From TrEMBL:
Signal peptide (from-to): 1-18
Domain GerMN: 58-164
Lineage: Bacteria, Bacillati, Bacillota, Bacilli, Bacillales
Name of this protein: GerMN domain-containing protein
Keyword line: Coiled coil, Signal
UniProt feature coiled coil, ranges: 30-57
InterPro entries found in the cross-reference section: GerMN
Length: 180
């Protein structure tokens, strides 16, 4: 029994010494840390410089869901794709109680922009489905919001990666939707 206790103490002592002897020169560690912090700081500064802010017009339904109302919001983005995803995010939430976001529960899966064509791939859960009037207003809100950007000539709307004839089964969907 005593041999077991002595052996245990010996092993613990050796472990403690081996951990304590793992010596690295402190000067190189500090220099490396400072270098890493400076590099990270430079990268953050460059990212901050590249961020742009823009005021955009976002369209929501009124409380009766009978017409669209315009609201100006500010978005921050780093490139065109990010700008369009931030615009979609703005369509999903309103900062005013009297403006109803028609795209609030519709998930954006991906955004692509190429040669004037904006492609939005969305997922529509059952609880996000609207009636025919709501669907028409939602499409109008989407097109008015995105066609304010002069570089967008058309919008292709995909549902779960596939083209569809209708967004929610009520109104016909042109694919792509062309700028009026």
């Amino acid at each position: 029994m005593k041999k077991g206790i002595y052996l245990f103490i010996l092993i613990c002592t050796l472990c403690a010494f081996s951990i304590g002897c793992d010596h690295h020169p402190s000067s190189s560690k500090v220099q490396g840390s400072k270098l890493d912090l400076n590099e990270a700081s430079t990268e953050n500064n460059e990212a901050e410089k590249q961020k742009k802010s823009q005021k955009i017009e976002v369209y929501y339904a009124d409380v009766q869901v009978s017409k669209l109302e315009k609201n100006v919001q500010s978005i921050t983005f780093t490139d065109a794709t990010h700008k369009y995803s931030e615009t979609y995010t703005a369509l999903q939430k309103s900062d005013q109680d009297n403006l109803i976001p028609l795209w609030g529960n519709i998930d954006l899966l991906s955004v692509a922009f190429n040669e004037g064509k904006l492609t939005l791939d969305i997922h529509i859960p059952d609880e996000a489905r609207l009636g025919s009037g709501g669907e028409a207003l939602a499409m109008e809100a989407l097109t008015k919001t995105f066609f304010q950007f002069s570089e967008i000539n058309s919008i292709e709307l995909l549902v779960d990666g596939k083209e569809t004839d209708s967004l929610m089964g009520h109104t016909e969907l042109d694919n792509p939707i062309l700028r009026p």
